[in-house]
Amino acid sequence: MKRANPLLKDLQAVLPDIAKNATKTEELRKVPSENIDLLKKVGLHKAFLPKAYGGYEISLPEFGDCIAALAGACASTAWAFSLLCTHNHQLALFPKQLQDEIWGNDPDALASSSIAPFGRYEETEGGILFNGDMKWSSGCDHAQWAIVGFLRDNQEGAKDYCFAVIPATDYTIDDDWNAMAMKGSGTKTLQIRDAYVPEHCIQKAKDMMEGKSAGYGLYPDSDLFYSPYRPYFASGFSAISLGIAERMLEVYKEVTSNRVRAYTGAKVHAAIPAILRTGESTHQILAARAFLEKTWEEHAEYAKAHRYPDRYTLAHWRTNQAYVTKMCIEAVDRLFNAIGASNWLLDKEAQRLFRDAHMTGSHAYTDYDVCAQILGREVMGLEPDPSLL
């Protein structure tokens, strides 16, 4: 879908430089500072920042187009930076006091996360003491804050899934990211020891999904913050998968158009198998984009109407993303399997796209085996399975 997107236009100007850094990004095992500087220069980090702090509050469709384009240049950079951006949406649902602490003096401040509820805590006056080795914190080297998950006992004797926001001065980063794919995302472990977290820095995940968090309604004129946090938090995963697939199609065409069979001299691009693979993957990638754009538009429509989605709609939003990722991986595999052995060499872009494509389907949110069950149960009128959420 063609839409006016000034931020995308500005972003496209810096993508060649980010693409040139792709190998360096993998070698560093984190996003280079120059990539972060380029993305901040065009203002991508302000996509979901409240306007009260100088943010843009662009729509999810506009943001998704930007992240897909960025992924075509460097998926590792897109993975880390998209999360740093989407966390702003989540932070805008916290109390104004915390938002002022984060953005009041530094509107460019960013937060990484480790939201799986593996943190440990002790109740103390005015808040909690937080401990944990919080893994999978993408882009943490470039963040000034962290959003971390834990289960907190409530008055009913059950546990609430909660988020705590902690400044970078209260944790250290364990440089333990050594991965086969998304090598440059810097998805490291945050080591947190007895960090004091006041109550205004804690929110329940359920409240942030139902319009009951402390920050709900702070921005009555916003078309962005009357929406649950999770679809925005996870929006980058499928956008990155799409961007990789779109770039893979271009690389495949470039490589195949100049390729000849080593033993026969036959031109590969005119061969029936190459034509069939090009055609089917093109259709699959176009279908993935159309399906994802439709879902993005629904997100934007609900937010603009200040309308929260029901369970049925949320199930579709969650699982649509995973299905798009599944389609994109299939399209990439179809092309890579026929692109030639030389493209397995580490200096070739195609092998990096192949590796990173599969990583996009490995996040808990894009696990299609889980998502197919979630949607199937909803369509059949069954209660959600808590083990799948």
Report on this structure.
The chain is α+β, with helices and mostly antiparallel strands. The chain has three domains: 6-91, Orthogonal Bundle (Butyryl-Coa Dehydrogenase, subunit A, domain 1); 109-204, Butyryl-CoA Dehydrogenase, subunit A, domain 2 (Beta Barrel), CATH 2.40.110.10; 234-388, Butyryl-CoA Dehydrogenase, subunit A, domain 3, CATH 1.20.140.10. 48% of the residues lie in helices and 16% in strands. The chain has a seven-stranded mixed β-sheet with strand order 5-6-2-1-3-4-7.
CATH superfamily grouping of the largest domain = Butyryl-CoA Dehydrogenase, subunit A, domain 3
The whole-number mean of residue pLDDT values reads 95
Q: Which architecture of the largest domain per CATH?
A: Up-down Bundle
Task: Provide the β-strand percentage band.
Answer: 15-25%
Protein name: p-hydroxyphenylacetate 3-hydroxylase, oxygenase component
Organism: Marinomonas spartinae
EC number: 1.14.14.9
Keywords: Oxidoreductase
How would the blueprint of this fold be written?
Elements: H1 6-20, H2 22-28, H3 33-42, H4 60-73, H5 75-91, H6 96-103, E1 111-124, E2 127-137, E3 145-153, E4 159-167, E5 171-174, E6 188-198, E7 202-204, H7 205-210, H8 229-233, H9 235-257, H10 272-304, H11 311-336, H12 349-360, H13 368-379
Parallel strand pairs: 1-3
Antiparallel strand pairs: 1-2, 2-6, 3-4, 4-7, 5-6
Helix pairs in contact: 1-3, 1-4, 4-5, 4-9, 5-9, 9-10, 9-11, 9-12, 10-11, 11-12, 11-13
Quick summary:
The protein is α+β, with helices and mostly antiparallel strands and 389 residues long.
